[in-house]
Design a protein that fits this description.
With about 130 residues, this protein is an all-beta fold. The protein has one domain: Beta Barrel (AOC barrel-like). Helices cover about 0% and strands about 65% of the residues. It is built from no helices and eight strands. Strands 1-2-3-4-5-6-7-8 form an eight-stranded antiparallel β-barrel. It starts with a strand and ends with a strand.
Length: about 130
C-alpha cells in the first residue's frame, strides 16, 4: 500500500455543552483542517471527548469528511478517529470509513497516523489503497 505524508493545519472550535446533567463531562468540538502534500484537501468534522480523574486520562472519538485531491485523484472520504490516553501511554486509531470514498476516490481504504511535534506542528502519515 502506498504511504504518503505531509503537514496539516487544524482549528478546533468548542461547541455548546450538552444541557443534560449526566452529559456535563463531555466536550464537543468542531474540526476544520487543511492537509498539504500528496493529500491536498480540507476537512470538516465533529469531536466528542471526555477526561478521567487523572490529568493524563482521556478519550475521544471524531468523524471528519475530507474533500480534495489524493495523489492526483479528486473526491472525498470520511475518517473515523478513536483515541485514548492513560498514565501508561496513548493510542490513536484513524481509519477510512468503508465505502465513503466519492468520485475518483471510490473504493478508498486506509489508515492515518498523526504526529504532533513538540513545537506544535501537525503532520500525517496516510497508508491507503485505491482500486486500479
Amino acid at each position: 500500500m502506498p504511504t504518503i505524508d505531509g503537514a496539516f493545519d487544524v482549528k478546533l472550535t468548542p461547541q455548546p455543552a450538552d444541557e443534560r446533567e449526566a452529559a456535563a463531562f463531555l466536550g464537543r468540538m468542531a474540526i476544520d483542517k487543511s492537509f498539504h502534500g500528496e493529500l491536498e484537501a480540507t476537512s470538516v468534522g465533529q469531536m466528542l471527548a471526555a477526561r478521567g480523574d487523572q490529568p493524563t486520562s482521556a478519550g475521544y472519538v471524531a468523524i471528519e469528511r475530507v474533500t480534495g485531491t489524493l495523489a492526483g485523484r479528486q473526491g472525498s472520504f470520511v475518517l473515523q478517529h478513536s483515541g485514548h490516553s492513560n498514565p501508561a501511554g496513548q493510542s490513536l486509531e484513524i481509519n477510512v470509513v468503508a465505502d465513503s470514498g466519492t468520485d475518483e476516490l471510490k473504493g478508498l481504504s486506509g489508515t492515518m497516523r498523526i504526529i504532533i511535534q513538540p513545537g506544535g506542528g501537525h503532520f500525517y502519515e496516510f497508508e491507503y489503497e485505491l482500486p486500479a
